[in-house]
Amino acid sequence: MKRDTSPTAAFQPAAPRGIVEGLVYVFERVMPDPFVLSICLTFVVAVLALLIAPTGNVPTLLDSWYTGTFGILAFALQMILILATGYAIAEAPIVQRGLRALAAHAQTPARAALLVFPVVAIAAWLNWGLGLIVGALLSREIARRVHVDFAWLVAGSYSAWSICNSGLSSSIALSQASHGNALNLVEKATGHVVPLAETIFAPFVFIPTVLVVVVMTAIFIKMHPKSDNVVAFSDAGDASDDASSADPHARTSDGTATFASRLEQSMLGTLLLLVLGVGYLAMEWRENKFDLDINTTILIFLLIGLALQRTPIAYANAIRRAARQTGSMLLQYPVYGGIMGIMKGTGLASMIAKAFVTIATPATLPVWSYLSSLIITLLVPSAGGHWAVQGPFVLPAAISLHASVPRTAMGVAMAENVSNMLQPFWAVPIVAIAGIRIQRVMGYTAVTFAVSLVIYAAALWLVH
């Protein structure tokens, strides 16, 4: 990916004059590149494991680190495929026209926020990968038309995306609703699955989800920088690396199309994959019941993207462009897998979870599960991997205390929404696609962290 040469990249902020400006100022000077940050977190976790973990000896630490680093690769590929297939959908001409039509309605910063928050939140609720892509691309389209601070706009998109773990692609909710799923810890302990009606569609989940979107829209409108501090988007240096994807060998010397180019441009290959994919889904859902897990989500996104892009070569080119945005994820996933391995193998994660569980009551366990999840998520920013670490401790506690199992499980997921606003792992794709430095964005999302922290905690405690 080309180096960011936009004014945002070179911007040197003045001394802060308010809380939000102060946060942006601090993040720009303190926060390193996310990959460097993941290395720093590895060091911190390793030291803590050696000092206080139950099995915190060097051989166990090294073995756990290695196991975690390479054990996460299959899951990492699934996550990258969700992002790539979501990108291919969002880049389809008909979707691009829709984004441009939407962006045309944003004529002021306030209108931009009023547009971005609901659109991105709905996309993220449907699928976290789609939400990331739509948020980044819609932000770029709006910023081309409206004089807004680009970091503020991207941060708003990321804040709207934060509700994704309360939506249809929540790996914790989906896994507990899927019979035989490896991460369905509830079924393993009780023999029952937890339907989505008791998790993402329950009032204690969807009410705070809607509230976060509404409240943060209003707050972001107030947070937009003064006109003299606005750093607008620039297309400078942003030309695509493959502005022309045409194959120089697509035609013979006499100007006729080659067999290879005709095959690439034929819809037959697309139709074949559509028939296979749709046929499988129809058979599976007829024989069992409608079910969404990570793999079926990827398949559905693949099929939709193929249908929208129409030809195999168009889809392949879209995936190639998407691949440029996943490079940082390829670096970070193994590092965070190593962190997760250390925390699980040495017993450090269990110490954190048990510390909260031991002081819990049936009424307070979901909230303590939520608070412990906030800490663990900062170190293991993957809902599926995080659940594998924390679930084995909070679920037995919920069962033994006769606390609400769905509420306890979703407390873990809702904390993911909150912690992601300080943990840059998931911000990397959206800032890469948008073409902006992550530090300024995280200064704004720190506000989202503080507000959503209170909203979700109150919902777990009060909404029934």
Describe the structure.
With 464 residues, this protein is an all-alpha fold. It is built from 23 helices and no strands. The protein is globular and about 70 Å long. The termini are far apart.
Structural class: mainly alpha
Low-confidence parts lasting 5 or more residues at pLDDT below 50?
Answer: 1-15, 237-246
> How is the biggest beta sheet arranged?
none
Amount of beta strand: under 5%
- Spatial gap, N to C terminus: 48 Å
Tally of individual helices: 23
Layout of helices and strands:
Elements: H1 7-10, H2 19-30, H3 34-52, H4 58-71, H5 73-90, H6 93-103, H7 109-126, H8 128-145, H9 150-161, H10 171-177, H11 185-190, H12 203-223, H13 259-265, H14 268-287, H15 294-309, H16 312-325, H17 327-345, H18 348-357, H19 365-379, H20 383-401, H21 405-419, H22 427-434, H23 438-462
Helix pairs in contact: 2-23, 3-17, 4-17, 5-8, 5-15, 5-16, 6-8, 7-8, 7-9, 7-12, 8-9, 8-22, 9-12, 9-23, 12-23, 14-15, 18-19, 18-20, 19-20, 19-21, 20-21, 21-23
